[in-house]
């Protein structure tokens, strides 16, 4: 009971340590699992979602996927459970027969977070392979003169399983003349040897039948057998001898098929059949099968299949030289393959943005890249680069992963689309390279206000125009795109002669056409000053204004009006003017038909006009004098300082003075109806005056008293 409790406690502690180890590895972006080989497709490997702390909806929304090394996808992610499952049946002996611990690696990529997690899965061995011999029937030729205790090498059995499931022991049965001895090789492997336990007599028995059995350590154990036929030969007292115990050859991986790699040589001091040496390939590493050929007579080793450094960088052959009497010698041949830069870097875009906003901050991840080169040394060192002049840069992300990030803010109005070429070059001579093109579209942000084609607009409009007539068209453009570049026009608020500006003109919102809503009258409105606003469709909207000036052009649409004498109404005939003016007979040409008051008014007007003309001449003289003084001062000092602007009277001031003193005179024969009116409308409506005659003249129509 106590022992069971202790075992339960140990299992609990082991489970706790496993959970803590998985949590620690998940925090550092790495997960480790193990699964037996030969499991069916879809078998459970590990709970990735739980170990990484990811929720199941997030797995679907963030674009999580598994990327395996190599060309075969051995694992997949179950979308509903978040479990890592097998995507293929995995054979450990096929994947990594030559290594003790078989580990497959893959990456979990979370595209939404631009994160990569490494996953290592150890493939556990099961006893699914029995030991086997390369040849099931062997023949061993032994001289009858061979002394007891002599040893003869037997072929090794091969078991691709590992650990206890691999080859563990040998057994020999069938004849009392022979026994079995097992020697340990340099690598710890077992090498069976046939030991002559009892002297042979060819005349007694020319052949001996034996069975060699190889046994592994599985439960239950698996076995493999080979039949050995021992042939007794006549005496042969000299064995062949190789010129070297070990041959070492270095060849590049691109050596042509059919090339001679090395020639081995063995000699035998005997004569006749016992002196003839025959070469054979006794043993070779698993990766060497079918690649090399040994000529049994000459000892020439040739290449029959192309070498690939990435598939195998070293091969070991064990050769045997046997004479006609069955004596032999062994030699080892090590063929080392040197790497040649024959693999270009493999550049894979694992995740990429197709479009991004132009206001994205610098450092935004655009794409995630994976780079791999199967060569070794400098030939496998990869350098990545981008085109010059693009607003992006590369930064190392994780291991052989790189991120393409923005180096500065983007401007869609300058460049709306990018085709960024990423190049990966190795360190070979000459270097090999590969490339990938990232297509990125820049999304618009409303960062440009509309701009008018002109700084200000003006137009001349004839009065009495038709209502609804086109006056002019303003145009503004927006450098943005889509809705942000859609421009609409409207008038700024204002009033003209107490009425709203919108009652005079209107602007078409889509085209910017400005229309007159009423017929203009030059005598009422001579010009219009207004502002047109252009506003884009962004949120918030951006806008700009432009000044528009409309000049009303006068037309001859008013007839002259007689101020004096006033026209008599048709109904009146007494005190009104009848169209006949009486004048004295003695009146001279140019004289007015007026009374004494009218003459005084004419004199007053003439006096005022003379005074006004004299004032103008004086003002111009002062102005010329001051201008002359300014020119002299400017020549001396180069500029006037401290002189107020109000000390100078310009042309506008003279015009204002002239308008303030313009006047209008109306004279009649009746002094009570004579008028003298000062007005700002004109300065030229005075009548020429003429002094009255010396004596009164008779009126027209009166009889001569004489």
Automatic annotation (TrEMBL):
The chain crosses the membrane at residues 600-622. Residues 697-706 have a biased composition (Low complexity). GO terms for molecular function: calcium ion binding. Residues 74-133, 134-242, 243-347, 348-452, 453-562 form the Cadherin domain. Residues 686-706 are annotated as: Disordered. GO terms for biological process: homophilic cell adhesion via plasma membrane adhesion molecules. The keyword Membrane applies. It is found in: Membrane. PROSITE patterns: CADHERIN_1, CADHERIN_2. It is a single-pass membrane protein. Residues 1-29 form the signal peptide. Its main location: membrane. The keyword Transmembrane helix applies. Keywords: Calcium, Cell adhesion, Glycoprotein, Membrane, Repeat, Signal, Transmembrane, Transmembrane helix. It holds the Pfam family Cadherin. It comes from the Eukaryota. GO terms for cellular component: plasma membrane. This is PCDGA protein. The gene is Pcdhga10_3.
């Amino acid at each position: 009971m106590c022992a069971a409790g202790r075992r339960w406690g140990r299992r609990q502690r082991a489970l706790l340590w496993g959970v803590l180890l998985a949590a620690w590895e998940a925090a550092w972006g790495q997960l480790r699992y193990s699964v037996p080989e030969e499991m069916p497709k879809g078998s459970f490997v590990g709970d990735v979602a739980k170990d990484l702390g990811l929720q199941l909806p997030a797995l679907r929304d963030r674009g999580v996927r598994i990327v395996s090394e190599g060309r075969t996808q051995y694992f997949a992610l179950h979308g509903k459970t978040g479990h890592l499952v097998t995507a293929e049946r995995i054979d450990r002996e096929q994947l990594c027969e030559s290594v003790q611990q078989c580990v497959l690696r893959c990456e979990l990529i979370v595209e939404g977070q631009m994160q990569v997690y490494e996953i290592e899965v150890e493939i556990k061995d099961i006893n699914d392979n029995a030991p086997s011999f390369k040849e099931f029937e062997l023949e061993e030729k032994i001289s009858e003169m061979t002394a007891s205790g002599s040893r003869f090498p037997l072929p090794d059995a091969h078991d691709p399983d590992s650990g206890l499931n691999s080859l563990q022991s040998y057994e020999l049965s069938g004849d009392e003349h022979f026994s079995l001895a097992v020697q340990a090789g340099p690598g710890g492997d077992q090498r069976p040897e046939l030991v002559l336990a009892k002297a042979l007599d060819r005349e007694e028995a020319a052949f001996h039948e034996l069975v060699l059995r190889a046994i592994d350590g599985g439960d239950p154990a698996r076995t493999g057998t080979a039949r050995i036929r021992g042939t007794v030969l006549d005496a042969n007292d000299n064995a062949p001898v190789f010129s070297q115990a070990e041959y070492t050859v270095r060849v590049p991986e691109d050596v042509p098929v059919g090339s001679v790699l090395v020639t081995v040589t063995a000699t035998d001091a005997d004569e006749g059949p016992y002196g003839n040496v025959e070469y054979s390939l006794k043993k070779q590493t698993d990766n060497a099968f079918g690649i090399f050929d040994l000529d049994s007579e000459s000892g020439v080793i040739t290449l029959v299949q192309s070498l690939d450094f990435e598939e195998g960088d070293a091969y070991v052959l064990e050769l045997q030289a046997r004479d006609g009497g069955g004596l032999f010698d062994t030699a080892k041949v090590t063929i080392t393959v040197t790497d040649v830069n024959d693999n270009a870097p493999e550049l894979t875009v694992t995740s990429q943005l197709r479009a991004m906003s132009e206001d994205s901050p610098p450092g935004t991840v655009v794409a995630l890249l994976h780079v791999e080169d199967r060569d070794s040394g400098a030939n496998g060192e990869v350098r990545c680069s981008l085109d010059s002049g693009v607003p992006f840069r590369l930064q190392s992300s994780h291991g052989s992963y790189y991120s393409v990030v923005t180096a500065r803010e983007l401007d869609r109005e300058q460049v709306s689309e990018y085709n960024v070429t990423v190049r990966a070059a190795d360190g070979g001579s000459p270097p090999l390279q590969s490339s990938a093109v990232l297509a990125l579209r820049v999304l618009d942000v409303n960062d440009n206000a509309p701009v008018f084609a002109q700084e200000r607009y003006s137009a001349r409009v004839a009065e009495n125009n038709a209502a609804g007539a086109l006056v002019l068209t303003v145009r503004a453009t927006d450098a943005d795109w889509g809705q942000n570049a859609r421009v609409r026009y409207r008038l700024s608020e204002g009033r003209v002669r107490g009425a709203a500006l919108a009652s005079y003109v209107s602007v078409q919102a889509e085209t910017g056409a400005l229309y007159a809503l009423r017929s203009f009258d030059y005598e009422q409105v001579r010009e219009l000053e207004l502002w047109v606003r252009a506003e884009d469709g962004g949120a918030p909207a951006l806008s700009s204004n432009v000044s528009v000036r409309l000049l009303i052009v006068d037309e001859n649409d008013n007839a002259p009006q007689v101020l004096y004498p006033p026209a008599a109404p048709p109904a009146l005939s007494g005190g009104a003017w009848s169209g006949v003016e009486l004048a004295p007979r003695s009146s001279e040409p140019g004289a007015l038909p007026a009374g004494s008051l009218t003459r005084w008014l004419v004199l007053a007007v003439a006096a005022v006009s003379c005074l006004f003309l004299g004032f103008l001449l004086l003002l111009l003289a002062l102005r010329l004098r001051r201008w002359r003084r300014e020119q002299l001062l400017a020549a001396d000092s180069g500029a006037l300082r401290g002189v107020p602007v109000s000390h100078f009277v310009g042309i506008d001031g003279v015009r204002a003075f002239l308008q303030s003193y313009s006047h209008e005179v109306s004279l009649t024969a009746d002094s009570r109806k004579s008028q003298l009116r000062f007005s700002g409308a004109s300065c030229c409506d005075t009548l020429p005056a003429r002094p009255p005659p010396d004596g009164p003249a008779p009126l027209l129509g009166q009889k001569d008293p004489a």
